[in-house]
Structures are given as structure tokens and as C-alpha cells.
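Form 12-C: Joint structure prediction
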Amino acid sequence: QVQLQQRGAGLLKPSETLSLTCDVYGGSFSGYYWSWIRQPPGKGLEWIGEINHSGSTNYNPSLKSRVTISVDTSKNQLSLKMRSVTAADTAVYYCARGPTSSWYVVYWGQGTLVTVSS
Amino acid sequence: DIQMTQSPSSLSASVGDRVTITCRASQDISNYLAWYQQKPGKVPKLLIYAASTLQSGVPSRFSGSGSGTDFTLTISSLQPEDVATYYCQKYNGDSLFGGGTKVDIK
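Section 2 - Result
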């Protein structure tokens, strides 16, 4: 049973860096496609970016300048860093896993509410 | 940039009704289209991938169709447990979600 367990700070001040980690349990890490997705309160889903098993990344153009997604296969971890956050970055953040060789999402993390407030 | 437009944004139907949600891409995305269901306060759940392939464990009253730019999610007989918001996602190249369709019971 694949489980994605997210952790990271839930309250940030404007201009700080958002840092989230997703620990993967119950399945192989390598060979799959991994994503970060967010959802502002009461709004729809927004794709942040993705990384495949070879480390190739794609980012949402509107966030690309501030976002880094990485994997540590030795620790079965996926990470998200987003610099210079503002109130507009307040959202529930999800890590997600697709099947091999495709980017739709089969497994989701539990979600982390990140609030940006001074 | 490709846009994904879902319609309607919300609908209300009776139990047993056939419900159709559409998703239109502004460019050809072949069949790289997935549908998700998100119940209030819950994590999204994959229903359909490759435009028409039902994910394992999803009830057969859900079906997907389409290719290219026009796609449809159909619930053949709406059930109370289907109250949720439904999202389409294109996943070739940069991923992108549609705006969502909120479904409730009349």
C-alpha cells in the first residue's frame, strides 16, 4: 500500500521560503512520476510542477522562478521549495505520484495547509 | 498557452439522473486527459485516465470519452455519494487542471 506522508511548516511570513517534504512508504520510489499540486482555500487545483525518476522537471510557468522540486531516492523523499511567498501562496499543498511514465495522479499525500501571514 | 475549460461550473441533479460534465482544451491534447473527484474536505481521487480508462475500483456508472480537444465525464445514474467537485487535468507536457464542476443533489 503506497502512502505519501507530508511534513513541513504550516505558517510562514511573507518573503519566507516554503519547504515541504513528502516521505514515500510502501512502494518503489524510482521509476515513477512525482508532482506537487496546491489548492487555495475554496478554490480549484493548481499544478505546481513535476519531476520524473531521472530528475527531469517541469514547472508551472507562473511559479517557475520561485519553485524547486527535487527527489532524494536514497531516502524515498520528494521535496518542494518555494521562495519569497506571499499571501497568494496560502493553500493546501499536495504531493502526488503518478504511474510509471505518465503524469496523472494515482496517489496523493494527505495535504498540508500552508498559511502566509504577517 | 493551453487552457482547460470545464462546464458547467456547477450543477444540481436528481438521484438517478444522467450527468454530463465537459472539458475543452484550447489545443489538441490527444487523450492525455484525467478526471478526478474531490469530496468536501477530502483529497482528490482519480476516476478516469487516458480520457476513457476507468481507474481500478471506480464504479462503472462513471465513464469518460473524447479525444483531441473535447472531453466528457458522464455519471450514468447520479448517487448521493457522488456529491463532489470534479476536475479534469491535461497531463501531456505541462499539466493543467480545469476549473472544476460542483455537483450536488436537487
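Section 3 - Comments
The interface with chain B takes residues 35, 37, 44-47, 50, 58, 60-61, 94, 98, 102-106, 108-111 of chain A (CB under 8 Å). Chain A has no helices and eleven strands.
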